[in-house]
Design goal:
about 400 residues, mainly alpha, two-stranded antiparallel sheet, about 60% helix
Length: about 400
Amino acid sequence: MNKKEDKKVSTPLPHREGHGGESSVGKPSRLLSLDVLRGITVAGMILVNDGYGETYAPLQHAKWNGMTPCDLVFPFFLFIMGISTYLSLRKFNFRWSPQVGRKILKRTLVIFFIGLFINWFDLACDGRAFDFAHLRIWAVMQRIALCYCAASLFALFVNHRYTLPTVAVLLIGYAVILLYGNGYAYDETNILARVDLSLFGYDHLYHKSPVDPEGLLGTIPAIAHTLLGFYACKLMMESKDTAEKVMRFLLFGAVMVFIAYLFTYLLPLNKRIWSPTYVLMTCGLCSMLQGILMYVIDIKGSKRWTMPFLVFGVNPLFLYVFSELLAIVFGYTGIGALIYNAIVAVLSPLSSFLSPLSLPEFESLAYAVTFTLICFLVGYPLYKRNIYIKI
């Protein structure tokens, strides 16, 4: 845990090319618009994960092909992590050292094992604390850990001019795997399911769909996803002023969306398998949103509305992990049911007025909003005291 020294935000200065990357020009300040985007994303992750029972279709993941607003939040986080990785390693001039290596290894292992701990905690609350034979190996935090590690090592050991070629190799290679491995099949013949099953066994995998959505092969395009965020930040840092940074984010995003759209007929959007078009589409949308936020916040100076999102944005992984553990506790102790029943009791007198909104789904949304507000109340004192809990 550490404290930030200054909440004033300025856009880091551009810097010259160096061997394998760019040279540092000093420790950059936090980028306010990036914190806001990260906060929007984390709040969205909590909101869509924590409804109660039946919920509105936009707050549900697409069952297979296609994409809903719910499918944007995790890929947005990976794209933002790519940006953050660039800004973080820039302080070290993208040079390998034992200090940097230990930092990357420590953070990778901490994030990965926190993900395992969340999965174990779910088993423990179910009375199966020692049932390691059924401990799920993969989940969101584990994918974040692997993508962070891969992007960080790339940043240190590969010249950054090869970022887009590397992304192309990863996505094209993965597309070939999908096309020739029955990767769009919604059954156990899918190559992603077969690889995970053969390497880890059925009892260690996700069981609500034939394919584990955070499985091993799907990490390949997720790494490319993170590298696209890294490259977008590189483009930003090469810009001369904020207006040019905004234009580069918008243009980069528009190009990604256009390319994704062109290939959706061959490779449909699919979050479960993290299809290449899904990578490009979500990266493009996130890049354009970052450009819009940078224009609104950093150029127009509109900041009053940002506070709720900054609460989530400055402690993103901590609040996400807290939300996952809290949801497990609420589920097994019945606290979640008590809160939901209280919400139903409050909304029941308004049922005739709310009927056009589809009451069960509205009650689920009200519960999700309440749960997100609880997480906000946990993060708000940390934000007010300028405390960052780094994971």
